[in-house]
Amino acid sequence: MTSRQKQSRKTELKIVRTALSLMKEKGYENVSIREICDAAGISTGAFYHHFKSKEEMIKIGFGSYDEYLAGVLETYENPDPLEFLRFVLLNQTEYVMNETGCLTAELYRALLSSNDRYAIGKFRLYYRVVAKYVALCLREGKFTAPLSADYLTELLIRIIRGDIIDWCLHEYSYDLMEFARKDLDVVFAGICGGTK
Q1: pTM of the entire structure?
Q2: CA-CA distance, 20 to 10, in Å (whole number)?
Q3: 95, 37 Cβ separation under 8 angstroms
Q4: CA spacing 20 to 30 A to 66: which of 25, 96, 116, 127?
Q5: Are the C-beta atoms of residues 104 and 96 closer than 8 Å to each other?
């Protein structure tokens, strides 16, 4: 990435974080692009240089996790691939819960109403990290279920995504992390041959 691209990405993330903060306070529908720009200290033209619409900007909220994850990976030290996999899946869940909170439903609406498939892209750091550690778990015999690495990667990501969507459908009324941990315990027990 060139320094210009890094600066552009930094500005995008600043806009997204500012918008998410305002939307947590006022609600998605009650925040205008002008308010976002004023709070971020940018012009409306700068906003439209980075995003076509408020909906497109919201979709970037998912992408910001990959950059957050890159920083987390630099400090995480547990060498056990199964524990690392659990950590990444739950870390992503916690990030969604804490950073996007009750805007998560809006993020999914924006994704479902567009042709952009960023959130499910196999090129994403999140996907690549999960795939890498699923493969390590298989290679080290931690996963004993006769399933492919691709299938297990997709399965684990679907379970977490499903937990997040269910949390939205229940209007954020339960502890997402508690349920995500339990769901992963059940799945890991099954694919680890009854042990975690």
Answers
A1: 0.76
A2: 15
A3: no
A4: 25
A5: yes
